[in-house]
Design goal:
100 residues; alpha+beta; 2 helices; 4 strands
Length: 100
Amino acid sequence: RNTLGEFPAVSLNKGWIPQVFEGQPARPYRFVHVDVDLHHPIATSLEYFLPQLVDGGVLVVDDFGSLHWPGAKAAVEEYSARTSIPFVGLSTGQAIFIKR
């Protein structure tokens, strides 16, 4: 909260994914950082956030390249294959989607 305090448009929503998404109003997102490690929370985060991402918006998924969290890679690849929305795997171990 202290780190992001100077950004009034940032909201923090504590809870479990996907339940924390229930009741949230639809709104545009410019940047989303998903760092939840496991397949199901990542998959449902992609389903929730990517349709609401503005053109030029970026969604980052951590642990895409991690051998400890193979569900992250699977969730990203499955979503991309199903929706035909491309992503880029980075040498940092992350994957990014850029909405066009």
